[in-house]
Every structure is written in structure tokens, then in C-alpha cells.
């Protein structure tokens, strides 16, 4: 199985009220560069074309596939340290919470 990384991108200024993008890739640095060049996907292509800047904030390496959706769900509340400051919520905690909930769902904690 390929090693997967989930990444968080910050969009500046926000595009159509959207200021973040979360994705997953087995080649995360290449994938992020493609997003930044407008070749990463439909939505980020539009964002780049409109002149917005996409910067990477965080990469969670070697994570299970399900972590992407978990991170997206949790991101309904903005936890980007660039937006809300580092003291608000640590991004490492997101992965800890994910594994904690996963263990709970398997009844092993
Ligand atoms: Zn942000």
C-alpha cells in the first residue's frame, strides 16, 4: 500500500468564501506544486487562475486514507494556525483525535 499524506493548503485571499483546501496524495510535494501551478485539480485551478495564492500549511505524513475525510469534517471549524493562531488548536492534535476515535470505534480503548 502506498504511503499517503494529507495536506492542508491556505488560500489567500479567500476564493468564494473558501480559504482552505485539504487533499491526499502518495506524492505530496509534487501534488502541492501542481496545485500551486494550477494543475492540481478543478477547484484549485480556478483559484490560481483568479490570481489567488495557495500555500501549504501542514502535511500529515503516512496516514490512513480515512484521515482525509476526518480532517475535512473537523475543518468545518477553522483550525488553520495561519488564521486562528497556534494556541487555538494544534494540528498534531487532529491526528491524535483521529486515532483515538478510530480505537474507540474498534472498542480497543
Ligand atoms: Zn488558514
Describe the structure.
- With 109 residues, the chain is α+β, with helices and mostly antiparallel strands.
- It has one domain.
- It has 5 helices and 3 strands; from the N terminus they run ββααβααα.
- The chain has a 3-stranded antiparallel β-sheet with strand order 2-1-3, with helices on both faces.
- The longest helix has 15 residues.
- The two termini are 26 Å apart.
- The model has no long low-confidence stretch (mean pLDDT 90).
- Bound molecules: zinc ion.
- Zinc ion binds next to strand 2 and helix 4.
Summarize the structure.
The chain is of the alpha+beta class and 109 residues long. It contains five helices and three strands, in the order E-E-H-H-E-H-H-H.
Number of strands: 3
Q: Secondary-structure element sequence?
A: EEHHEHHH
User: How many distinct folded domains?
Assistant: 1
Overall 3D shape: globular
Widest β-sheet, arrangement of strands: 2-1-3
Q: Compute the number of helices.
A: 5
Chemical compounds bound to the protein: zinc ion
Low-confidence stretches: none
Structural class: alpha+beta
Describe the largest sheet: 3 strands, antiparallel
Mean pLDDT: 90
Please compute the radius of gyration using only Cα atoms. Answer: 15 Å
Descriptive terms for the model:
single chain; 109 residues; alpha+beta; 5 helices; globular
What's the topology here?
Blueprint: E1 5-15, E2 18-25, H1 28-36, H2 42-49, E3 53-60, H3 67-74, H4 81-84, H5 91-105
The structure holds zinc ion.
Amino acid at each position: 500500500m502506498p504511503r499517503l499524506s494529507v495536506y492542508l493548503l491556505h488560500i489567500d485571499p479567500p476564493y468564494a468564501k473558501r480559504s482552505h483546501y485539504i487533499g491526499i496524495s502518495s506524492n505530496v510535494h509534487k501534488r502541492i506544486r501542481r496545485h500551486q501551478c494550477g494543475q492540481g485539480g478543478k477547484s484549485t485551478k480556478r483559484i490560481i487562475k483568479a490570481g489567488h495564492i495557495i500555500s501549504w500549511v501542514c502535511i500529515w505524513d503516512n496516514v490512513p486514507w480515512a484521515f482525509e475525510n476526518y480532517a475535512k469534517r473537523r475543518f468545518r471549524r477553522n483550525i488553520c494556525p495561519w488564521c486562528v493562531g497556534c494556541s487555538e488548536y494544534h494540528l498534531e492534535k487532529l491526528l491524535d483525535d483521529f486515532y483515538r476515535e478510530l480505537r474507540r470505534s474498534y472498542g480497543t480503548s
